[in-house]
Write a sequence for this structure.
């Protein structure tokens, strides 16, 4: 699929979202993603702004910017090192690992020319998994060397990928939920709704007993947030958002799930909403700090919002 066609599809997707139309958001203003450094000193932010921004959390000001053309779809900070994994699409800049100490940029080879949206370090930081827009999964080591690569037959563009908290297994989503081991052996394949609805985000709970997915909605029914047991049984399906669930994440303790959609919501492990944070623009990126006391979200209006763990807004970076 060529770049122009993907841009057209993306624009049509925005126009089908009534709330997005009301906000008159520009595609160029969308910040897709954010993540907190392992030590809490910095956050990384990317989107359709032709650069990767590193913001210092001491003063909430720009610390450094790296030029990266077009869309940064996902950033993922290494769990213990000052390394940042960056996924891109519609860009001449490849997916990469950036060493924030040396400023070295390691390109990740073998990924689809159409780019990727799913990128995730395993919990030990030994491996990096990338799910690309051709439905292929690539596993790299910390130096950016390709370790393994596979594709499950029938898999469409991968939108998100996450590692099991204790096993060398990954879960990735498109319109299906798929789970494999490190070698690509299929462990589980789940169709989450009767209709073919794109899933945008997935996150394992730290216990490994269950995971959560959030989808786009089918144009008739609202988006769903679903809790699934580790063996693939649906535990709860929640219709609570007018907008698609772009990203979700658990805090370090594992007792709070934060979701980015039409607003910020914070849930418990049973799927009950505890707090809601209102926003005048749909939210895309989301990340907890390592202590679970603060949250970061990014929006369709080029905003980086800082919240406390009760979904009360603290600050805004533009």
């Amino acid at each position: 699929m060529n770049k122009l066609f993907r841009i057209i599809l993306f624009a049509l997707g925005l126009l089908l979202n009534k709330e997005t139309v009301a906000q008159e958001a520009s595609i160029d203003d969308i910040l897709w993603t954010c993540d907190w450094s392992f030590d809490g000193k910095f956050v990384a932010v990317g989107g359709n702004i032709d650069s990767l921004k590193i913001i210092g959390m001491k003063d909430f000001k720009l610390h450094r910017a790296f030029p990266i053309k077009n869309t940064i779809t996902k950033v993922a900070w290494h769990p213990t090192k000052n390394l940042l994994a960056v996924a891109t699409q519609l860009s001449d800049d490849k997916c990469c690992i950036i060493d924030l100490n040396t400023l070295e940029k390691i390109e990740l080879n073998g990924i689809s020319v159409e780019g990727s949206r799913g990128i995730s370090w395993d919990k030990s930081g030994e491996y990096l998994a990338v799910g690309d827009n051709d439905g292929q999964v690539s596993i790299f080591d910390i130096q950016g060397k390709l370790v393994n690569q596979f594709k499950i037959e029938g898999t469409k563009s991968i939108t998100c990928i996450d590692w099991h908290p204790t096993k060398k297994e990954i879960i990735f989503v498109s319109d299906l939920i798929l789970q494999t081991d490190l070698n690509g052996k299929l462990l589980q394949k789940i169709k989450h709704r009767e209709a073919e609805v794109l899933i945008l985000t997935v996150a394992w709970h730290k216990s490994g007993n269950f995971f959560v997915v959030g989808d786009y909605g089918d144009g008739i029914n609202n988006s769903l947030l679903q809790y699934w047991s580790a063996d693939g049984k649906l535990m709860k399906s929640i219709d609570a958002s007018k907008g698609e669930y772009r990203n979700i994440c658990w805090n370090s303790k594992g007792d709070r799930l934060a979701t980015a959609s039409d607003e910020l919501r914070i849930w418990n492990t049973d799927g009950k909403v505890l707090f809601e944070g209102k926003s005048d623009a749909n939210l895309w990126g989301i990340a907890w700090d390592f202590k679970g006391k603060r949250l970061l979200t990014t929006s369709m209006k080029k905003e980086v919002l800082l919240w406390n763990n009760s979904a009360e807004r603290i600050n805004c970076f533009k």
